[in-house]
Design a protein that fits this description.
- The protein is mainly alpha-helical.
- It has a single domain, classed as Ferritin.
- Helices cover 75% and strands 0% of the residues.
- It contains seven helices and no strands.
- The protein has helices spanning 2-19, 39-45, 54-80, 84-112, 122-132, 136-164, 168-194.
- Helix 3 runs antiparallel to helix 6 and helix 4 packs antiparallel against helix 7.
- The longest helix is centred in the middle third of the chain and has 29 residues, at 84-112.
- It starts with a helix and ends with a helix.
Amino acid sequence: MRRRALSLAMTAALVTLAACGGRRGAETVDCGKFNASPSEYYNKISGVPGALNNDDRQFICHAAIGESAGVVFARMASRRAASPAVRDYAQRMDYDHAKTHEELAALARGEAGIAAPAGLDAPHLAVRDELAGLSGPAFDRAYLRASLDEGTQLVGIYQKEIKTGGSPTFRRFAADNLEVLQERLRVTQSVGSQTTF
């Protein structure tokens, strides 16, 4: 029940972001300020083995934003892409990114008592706005380029957590999902190379 409520909340937040298209107004997430829990909580656990360190908190924030962006961009492409192959790809990415975000958010809440963001930061909002101004093959090219860029960034974010995260739980989550992210990149490259614009 709780998981379903979380999933519904995530979906509502992402649908709102996607529906905004090129309009401003959605709150911008700033991972530099991400802390999402009382500072005294972190002071209490900072010396506890396995506790979240700053790299873990940054991982939660940046990975959640990346997965949210993947959903927002994919939902735009599901409606606007000119190529059927790009629309099919976007539907797969919508599912994949939403599932990973939901798992990360549930882990953050359950293991650390913090809420993973479901919004976008300024760079991702700029990409969303760029996509909103395009149509036809130009949209398809820009969407696939954004997906490739996002996928590459996410792989780096997950690799960094594996190396520097303080929490075994989040390091394991990153390791378990790294192969999925690398497969997403391969699929993105394949769709881009097979699609004629």
